[in-house]
Write a structure and sequence with these properties.
Layout (H helix, E strand, L loop, with lengths): L1 E9 L4 H9 L4 E6 L6 E7 L2 H9 L8 E8 L6 H8 L6
Antiparallel strand pairs: 1-3, 1-4, 2-3
């Protein structure tokens, strides 16, 4: 499974509508409205690398109100659960 984090700039007045439309795109697992340098962040999960172009370039970037996207492909996933398991010694709490 490949994961991409997509930063999305939108027309300011259309953020809710753009977020809802992007959330409906197959392959998009979450869309967040955020503060900072971008308006939205979408998490895209696909099985094959070639599918990223279909989801991001052919669908997300073409949603009306999207101005620009910047995509970051994840190499590894780290989470609190992963870290807990990595440091566990097998001793029950």
């Amino acid at each position: 499974m490949l994961t991409a984090i997509v930063h999305i700039d939108t027309e300011a007045a259309r953020i809710p509508e753009v977020a809802a439309a992007i959330a409906e795109v197959p392959g998009v697992s979450e869309v967040y409205s955020v503060t900072g340098g971008v308006d939205l962040i979408a998490v895209v999960r696909v099985r094959e690398h070639e599918q990223l172009a279909d989801v991001i370039a052919d669908h997300v970037s073409k949603v009306q109100g999207v101005i620009r996207t910047q995509t970051f492909i994840a190499f590894r996933t780290y989470s609190q659960q992963d870290l807990s398991q990595a440091f566990a010694l097998g001793i029950e709490d």
